[in-house]
Amino acid sequence: FKVSRVETTPYDGQKPGTSGLRKKVKVFIQPHYLQNFVQSTFNALSAEKVRGATLVVSGDGRYFSKDAIQIITKMAAANGVRRVWIGQNGLLSTPAVSAVIRERVGVDGSRATGAFILTASHNPGGPHEDFGIKYNMENGGPAPEGITDKIYENTKTIKEYLIAEDLSDVDISTTGVTSFSGPEGQFDVDVFDSASDYVKLMKSIFDFESIRKLLTSPKFTFCYDALHGVGGAYAKPIFVEELGAQERSLLNCTPKEDFGGGHPDPNLTYAKELVARMGLGKLDSESEPPEFGAAADGDADRNMILGKRFFVTPSDSVAIIAANAVEAIPYFSAGLKGVARSMPTSAALDVVAKHLNLKFFEVPTGWKFFGNLMDAGLCSVCGEESFGTGSDHIREKDGIWAVLAWLSILAHKNKGKLDGDKLVSVEDIVRQHWATYGRHYYTRYDYENVDAGAAKELMAHLVKLQSSLSEVNDIVKGIRSDVAKVVHADEFEYKDPVDGSISRHQGIRYLFEDGSRLVFRLSGTGSEGATIRLYIEQYEKDPLKTGRESQEALAPLVEVALKLAKLQEFTGRSAPTVIT
Ligand code: VG1
Ligand code: CO
């Protein structure tokens, strides 16, 4: 093949957000749009990460992925990359990409140093919906801010990109290596099985035999909903073939370019079918719900965990996994190095860390902040309130890992009881946890696609209020006399304990005397307008009071939050788009 230099001009707004660049497909398919971003990424990397390097290119299979893979492959060849690795049909979940970077060895002994992941995660897909791209580093984790800032700077000045226009399209539906010869020598495209490296890693972490006993027990029933995302490519090999679950326990496990027209976000609003099956919906099915249910997002890094007629909040989920990991999961049998959560995630994990005397870290939203801690051996288990849970086995959150962690805990708690009358249920485990550690009532209100200017004004108003706590407390008392006093208010700022880098403006916090918190953030993953996220949390230690309905328990704080922020005044919205 030959190398062509193509002239181009910058596009505005190619700034990577919380997790890469996400835009409508119609934006991505503009001439040179994707190419500008990819070349800007190559130019932001050090030379040895490009020339002669091995790169993974794959994603959640959403609309435009197949075209994007061919374009990126041709650009990689022209930029002197030695090998491109592609999951069969272009499919690799985000956690599988991370595993492939860290674990896979090519037929010629090669190892990957980075990846382009093609996904907009939980955002809908299809010609009128979202596409996305992000770059991951040699540790398997998302590029840190130092790199994403550089990529963005490059997109503002780009003048040309390199591409091997005459390189023939590679058939990504069949596994195998195709070799090409270019001006600098050989270039290989290696199409490989999407699941095998990941399955192997999962088998090295969990006790598959004990999970198999649980899943094949006539007492236990199971359901997994991939919402037509890439999780489906892993669900069958793991849950059915390895662990003996019945095939009919898999819902929506065929990956689709448009996720079947749905919103591939595993929460109580969007995972409607699963929610109904689990007995938590408005239109519940007549049959007895399964004991355990879970869902994933488009790129399968998120998870929602459900018991029979029972929802586990993600903040509780990570705390419960941390509390039980050493006994229930072989990978952690030597103990946890530490635990971490994102700032808006509830403090349930903090309480576990204190009880178990574990190192604890609070980082800004987004998985990239956990990576440094893990690389430095400071953190084993971490999680976010946004249905993200994971560990240092890779450098991304991992939806299927979280399901396997829960199944391991269930298998452990039910050891010797699988023939008894009653299994220890998901709900039993959560209620027992609350009895031991107290309960963090928690909810998140999302206001999606609000006017960007109005959202900014609202945030500015909240920051301004923070300059006088006594004024804040006067306002709060005027709204509800039954909530505690605000004792601290700030914008969250994080200093990375490993590299000393500082991230500012990571969310507006109001902290109350009784441990309650209100947090306000603007989303960094949307593709249109602004999304305001409001996180509300209240701690209850009294075991007699941990059984309340959470929206009812949190009602006073919610009222304070909405009025303090003048939410309706600024946005015109009287209700959130999604409550989780
Ligand atoms: C959201 C979540 C955040 C998560 C991010 C990426 O970001 O709040 O916790 O890490 O999505 O998840 P934001 O900026 O919109 O709040 V995923 O599954 O979209 O890669
Ligand atoms: Co995701």
Radius of gyration from CA coordinates:
24 Å
Side by side, the strands of the main sheet go 2-6-5-3-4-9-8
Question: How many distinct beta strands?
Answer: 26
CA distance, first residue to last residue: 51 Å
The main sheet comes to: 7 strands, mixed
Question: How is this fold's topology laid out?
Answer:
Elements: E1 4-7, E2 21-24, H1 25-28, H2 33-44, E3 54-59, H3 65-78, E4 83-87, H4 94-103, E5 114-118, E6 130-136, H5 145-157, E7 160-163, E8 176-182, E9 185-192, H6 196-205, H7 208-216, E10 222-225, H8 232-242, E11 250-251, H9 272-277, E12 292-296, E13 303-307, E14 310-311, H10 314-328, E15 339-342, H11 348-356, E16 360-363, H12 368-375, E17 381-384, E18 388-391, H13 399-413, H14 426-437, E19 439-450, H15 452-465, H16 469-479, E20 486-491, E21 494-495, E22 502-503, E23 508-512, E24 517-522, E25 530-540, H17 550-564, H18 567-571, E26 578-579
Parallel strand pairs: 3-4, 3-5, 4-9, 10-11, 10-12, 15-16, 15-17
Antiparallel strand pairs: 1-7, 2-6, 5-6, 8-9, 12-13, 13-14, 17-18, 19-25, 19-26, 20-23, 21-22, 23-24, 24-25
The structure holds alpha-D-glucose-1-phosphate-6-vanadate (VG1) and cobalt (II) ion (CO).
